[in-house]
Design brief:
This protein is α+β, with helices and mostly antiparallel strands and about 240 residues long. Helix content is about 10%, strand content about 15%. The strands form 2 sheets. Strands 1-7-3-4 form a 4-stranded antiparallel sheet. A 3-stranded antiparallel sheet has the order 2-6-5, with no helix packed on it. The N and C termini lie far apart (about 190 Å).
Length: about 240
Amino acid sequence: MSNGISKEMFVAGIVMSILVSTLAASALSFQYAGLQGPQGSQGLQGLQGVQGAQGVQGEQGPQGIQGIQGSQGFNGSQGIQGVAGTQGPQGIQGEQGIQGLQGIQGETGPQGIQGEQGPQGETGPQGANGTIGATGPQGPAGVFTIANMSGYVPAPAYDSGWMIPDYYAWNTFVHNLNTTNLYVYILGQYTGDNLTIHQLWLYSDVQWMIDGPNEIKVNVVAGSSWETVRVMLWKIAEP
């Protein structure tokens, strides 16, 4: 009840009244125990008293602690898929990616038809002169006749050709003419210049001696200006 005494308060009031009455009766019984005779039998229960007025409603109590949250319910079924929307505008083109690795080289194709030969190029400059080759074999002896004496000296029986001598030593020339009866003629020169005959510098720049029937030795004197020598021999006929 909002404006009267609650039921609980009413019951409490009755209980209090009974307790008070019981205590008062006990006190009087104790006080007059000596005068009162033995207690008689309990009388019949009296009628129930009139219910008292409802007491004033008390103040509302503090709110209780919140209960534990219940577990989540089951997930509902998925709804029907909506209608597809209209296509949006095309996005901006991205930057070009990094160039990939070079692929494996393919097989060599068949050889093409040979083209026409081009015109011959110009002749290049002449190369440098090669080194002097070894002396060739001795040629046959020349035929001595009056006809070939006209303005010429007969070819020698032996011609060494131009040779670079070893200085400070005797240089051996093998002629294989099988005779010591020889006419000796020696030429000496600088490189490409100053051709001189041996008689002018005999025993000054060059010396020679016959060493047996098949060899002749030539010595270019130390300090000589000769760079190459040439030995020519003629066989002298017996009278």
